[in-house]
Structures
1.
Amino acid sequence: MENQALLERFQNYVDAENKIEAKDWMPDGYRKTLVRQIAQHAHSEVVGMLPEGNWITRAPSLRRKTILISKVQDEAGHGLYLYSACETLGVDRDTLIEELLSGKAKYSSIFNYPTVSWADIGAIGWLVDGAAIVNQVSLQRTSYGPYSRAMVRICKEESFHQRQGYEIMIALAKNGNEAQKKMAQEAFNRWWWPSLMMFGPSDAASAHSGQNMAWKIKRHGNDELRQKFVDMTVPQAEYLGLTIPDKDLKWNEATGHYDFGEIDWTEFNEVVKGNGPCNKQRLQTRNKAHDEGAWVREAAMAYARKQQERQAVSAA
Ligand code: FAQ
């Protein structure tokens, strides 16, 4: 078939809300953009373990510690589903991991901010997982089957993560003493704007949105999802008695949405370029963990080889 005819058939198939599967024909650009987005997403889950992992040894109670360990472990699982989804597109995992460790690949800007107090763990669960859910609920309907199915499971787990974060914030901001309330407000101030940045550049500046939406990889624009997150989160902050760190935030009766102030895009671009508060530290920590885990990978491969040898002997 002519390339143009294949492209048209592909677009009609996507427009009819069918899922594209790994062995289906797809335009090179579709494959390339999926590899880029899914890999960035997988790396974000993996690097995303670091800011919270930082508090596992200092969680304020055994209950909080077990919950946090479980949450961080879930993020590793999300990374695994996503690397697997990415592999179905013909890239191998070693290449993806090498690109993360060398600093070539991107991951979400949000994980380059520090967790300075226990309240940051509450704020991450509430805001960062909350923002991730808004984005990922939409991605459950993405046109690529393996990515869409990974999202269904991930969203279920993220929803537990969001609630555990909000529960920490209730304990500190609503039921806590003055010092705890202050700690919660300070964490909220630190994470509010970076959480809005997670949704990416405004639609006008978004390089990939147009084509991604036509291919139904992305189902909503960055600004629409960001607005949804703001509308959902403001009443939650009010319930906690927290002040939103934005003097321009106000309810707009005419649009039925909250208006909010201008995002600091210079900060966003600097963080994405590698100049955020923790970019270097995150990559160093990830590289160290990878190096220290070499013996685990070797042992796992040795075991797999042994299994193959046994199977070959019994088949002979
Ligand atoms: N950070 O044209 P667009 C989580 C880049 S998971 C860094 O709008 P696109 C779970 C973008 O890659 C969080 N870079 O791009 C968790 C592109 O660069 P490129 C991760 C960003 O792809 C919780 C350029 O800017 N979630 O949190 C960011 O159409 C707690 C132009 O942007 C996902 O990855 C950013 N924030 O839309 C884990 C969801 N935003 O590649 C642990 C899947 C944009 O041309 C603890 N991804 N860029 O060099 C997506 O939905 C999309 O990729 C967007 C960006 C919406 C992120």
2.
Amino acid sequence: MDSSSIQRDIRDRLIIGLDVPSVDEARALVASIGDAGTFYKIGYQLGYAGGLEFAKEIIGQGKKVFLDLKLHDIGNTVEEGVRSVARLGATFLTVHAYPQTMRAAVTGKAGSDLKILAVTVLTSYSDQDLVEAGYAPVPTEELVARRAGQARDLGVDGIVCAAPEAARVRSIVGPDLAIVTPGIRPTGSSADDQKRIVTPGEGIRLGANHLVVGRPIVKAADPRAVTERIVQEIAAAVS
Ligand code: C5P
């Protein structure tokens, strides 16, 4: 993939998680961040509360949008759903890393600029959770590695993973896929419910192409100032 065109503007390496309950709040936040932020992630919370129309609105203003909808269904449904998302003009869309689903998503995005990101194993899952879900005992990290390899082979554009996994995932998928990592906390901000956090600079040095930051920006008294500081830290880590 041409990840360089997405990263040409250093601000694009920061994806701001628009984890707010309403379009009005999202609109106010995007306006307050202004040109400091260029790339926004819309997940279940806002997506199911008018967020898809809002995605079109901010794409029309020149912002990039990552739709974190984690699709997984029969192939035909995934393919047609991805085709609809591609028409919205989104830049990234997540799907669960099941081979049928990834294959269908890659077919559905054909001819568009949409990039598909695979979620290998949800980071909330332990080895025991996989057994409970009916998998034969398998260490989560082995399943992450297997699915990352399948994503690469099936033509997926990138992987979502925690920063501490980035080096291993990079060794599997090679240099061309995008690695997108949440669990980022600027020095001094609360970890919230994230267990394995790294700073923006560490995230970049561990091999992430894009960092997802939600609450440290969304809940800040001055979201624009925090955004600017994170972008500066990314720029320092890149140079
Ligand atoms: O507020 P915070 O910076 O923790 O937000 C991180 C964002 O990344 C949230 O939207 C969360 O759903 C998402 N995410 C995550 N961990 C994953 C996958 C996605 O935190 N493994």
